[in-house]
Design goal:
Blueprint lengths: L7 H8 L3 H6 L3 E6 L2 E7 L13 H17 L5 E10 L7 E11 L3 E10 L4 E11 L2
């Protein structure tokens, strides 16, 4: 994806092909621009683990989806080559919000940080990622 001039609806249509994030996890893009994205999902029973908490994989998927949007809007096709996530707290609210921000975007390598919070402001997770860009 290379255009920075896409509307939010056009970005959503493009990333709707990320079916695991959009269909299984029900993630929605709420902001999208070069180097920055916010994605959200309402927690449902399908997201819970056997202990009744949101499964780490669901949290990671939301963080990774925000990363995909942030590192691809306005850029050549970009993929993550390394991710690290720390789970800080359990969710207190009903909605998760992942905000991804570029730390450094080079010609072929980019570094990004995604924070995941709930709608109450609880810090749930922090993910850092290194991405490779096809040039």
């Amino acid at each position: 994806m290379t255009s920075e001039d896409l509307t939010l609806e056009q970005v959503r249509a493009h990333f709707a092909l990320d079916r695991f994030a959009t269909e299984a996890c029900m993630a929605v893009i709420t902001e999208a621009e070069r180097g920055h994205a916010i994605c959200e999902m309402t927690v449902d029973e399908i997201h819970l683990n056997a202990m009744g908490n949101v499964m780490g994989g669901a949290i990671f998927t939301l963080a990774d989806y925000a990363l995909a949007v942030a590192c691809n809007v306005g850029e050549a096709p970009t993929v993550a080559i390394s991710n690290s996530i720390s789970f800080i707290n359990t969710i207190k609210g009903q909605r998760l919000i992942a905000e991804c921000q570029v730390d450094k975007s080079g010609r072929s390598i980019g570094f990004y940080t995604t924070t995941v919070t709930d709608e109450l402001g609880t810090l749930v997770a922090i993910m850092t990622a290194t991405c490779f860009r096809k040039v």
